[in-house]
Amino acid sequence: MRLRTAAGMSLRQVEDATKKEISNAYLSQLENNKIARPSPNVLHALANVYKTSYEDLMKRAGYLSSDTEASGQKKGKVATFAVQGLTPEEENALLEYLAFIRKQRRK
Questions:
Q1: CA 79, 63, 8, 25: dihedral to nearest 10 degrees?
Q2: Quick check: 69 and 96 in contact, CB under 8 A?
Q3: CA pair distance 3, 49, nearest whole angstrom
Q4: Would you place residue 10 in the very low, low, confident or very high pLDDT band (cuts 50, 70, 90)?
Q5: What residues does each domain of the chain span?
Q6: Which residues is 74 bridged to in the sheet?
Q7: Would you give the end-to-end CA distance of the chain in angstroms?
Q8: Sorting pLDDT into bands at 50, 70 and 90, what band is 74?
Q9: Is 29 helix (H, G, I), strand (E, B) or coil?
Q10: Alpha-carbon gap, residue 14 to 78, rounded angstroms
């Protein structure tokens, strides 16, 4: 709600700005904590409308952690929104696989 208020927008204006991707009723439920974990695509749309960081909204929703690895890079929970109940070992394996794929693309 603070982001919407800071943007000077009504619920209906946000709905219009997202081309009705997010209804004003859904946004109201989100602001009143009736929806605890909005989907990443909703957060992306809101980040665009509010001109704020998508990563920050993802952290606030619990999709990314603010843990930092020894290298100083932030370690995000890449697949936790796609697959629920991952063990830390499974999550690390997914992160390693993602790094491998990205490395292959660079070649």
A1: 80
A2: no
A3: 10
A4: very high
A5: 2-60, 66-107
A6: 68
A7: 45
A8: very low
A9: helix
A10: 28
